[in-house]
Amino acid sequence: MATSEKPKRKEKVRLLVLSAILMVAVIFASIKLMNIQVVHGEENAVKADSNNLIRTNVEAARGEILDRYGRPLVTNSLVLNIQLNRGSLPEGKENEVILRLTQLFQKQGAAWRDEFPITEQPVNGEYQFKDGMDSEIEKLKSMLKMQDYGTAQQCMDNAIEKFEITGYNEQDTRTIVAIRCMMEVENFSDRNPYTFAENVDKTFAAQLIEMQNEIPGVEISETYTRGYVDGTLAPHILGNIGPMLKEDWEGDEESGVTGYKDIEGYNMDDDIGRTGIEALMESDLKGTDGVMILEKDADGTVV
Predict the structure, then answer these.
(1) C-alpha angle 210-213-219 in degrees, rounded to nearest 5
(2) In this structure, what are the phi and psi dihedrals at residue 258, rounded to the nearest 5 degrees?
(3) Any idea what the Cα angle at residue 185 is, between residues 183 and 188, rounded to 5°?
(4) What are 196-224's pLDDT values in tens digits?
(5) Residue 302 lies in a domain
(6) Could you report the per-residue pLDDT of 166-181, keeping only the tens digit for each?
(7) Considering its fold, how many domains does the chain have in total?
(8) DSSP-assigned letter for residue 286
(9) Same domain, 186 and 286
(10) 130 with 38, same domain?
């Protein structure tokens, strides 16, 4: 009789222990839930509401041109670009990040885009406009809300004030002004990153990725460059692509020409077909860009 009661006692002990563990777990979970929903409920709700979803365009590859047998005549090659992303670039730190990035490029001996239509150095004490850049000068003045007769020096002064570029030497100031202005001209935004440099060496790109803490907002983007299999084969028929001009973007209402600003999927810094098949079949060759969605918290950190 005593022998049969021992297993029963052991089972009761096990059940009591398991029940106690389960009860402790339930109590702990309840306390945790109450802490989240009741004690810090309002705070967490504010944090959740303050998070922003950042949508960034992802460039699509341009369509290839083939002959009647399916053999490629015009192809795409993958290249790496360096971009500045508004969603992860700390507000108020733009000038610092830009200068640090240019210093890294200079150290590497690498070039970045500089389509700024103002000379690198002052001439006779004042900056001057570069020759042959009338379209870029017009865009710059429009962005800075200046009159047509505004000088290059006035553009520099206005940009320095607009972007609060102070405490830098003359060369660094011109570097920052050039990039900040081009970012604005090209409609830099959460959905439209600014391409800082094109066709960057893979090893250098990897180094930049490892330095994200120093240069927040800097990202690597895969894009495509156009390649012609045989450059001597009917180039006037195949045509070419080139940067979008102001008149392409604006269009001409009087002549019934629709500007690319009114066509979905285009940005001001896009390349478009300028001659031949590239121009004639632009709407078919132009790919449909994708969208990358990032969530950013109230502190500006991507989560």
Answers:
(1) 60
(2) -80, 130
(3) 40
(4) 999 999 999 999 988 888 899 999 888 88
(5) no
(6) 999 999 999 999 999 9
(7) 2
(8) S
(9) yes
(10) no
Asked whether residue 17 falls in the same domain as residue 114, the answer is no
Is residue 64 classed exposed, middle or buried when 0-12, 13-18 and 19+ CB atoms within 10 A define those classes? middle
For residue 301, tell me if it sits in a domain: no
Separation CA 277–CA 258 (nearest Å): 19
Report the candidate in 234, 203, 249 with the shortest Cα–Cα distance to residue 73. 234
Residues 70, 214 within the same domain? yes
The one-letter amino acid code at 243 reads P
Quickly count: other Cβ atoms within 10 Å of residue 237's Cβ.
13
Which pLDDT value is given to residue 192?
Answer: 86
Torsions phi, psi of 232, nearest 5? -95, -5
Distance of CA 292 to the CA centre of its chain: 10
State which residues form the domain around 6: 2-50
Quick check: 51 pLDDT over 80?
no
Provide the pLDDT confidence category of residue 29 given band limits of 50, 70 and 90. confident
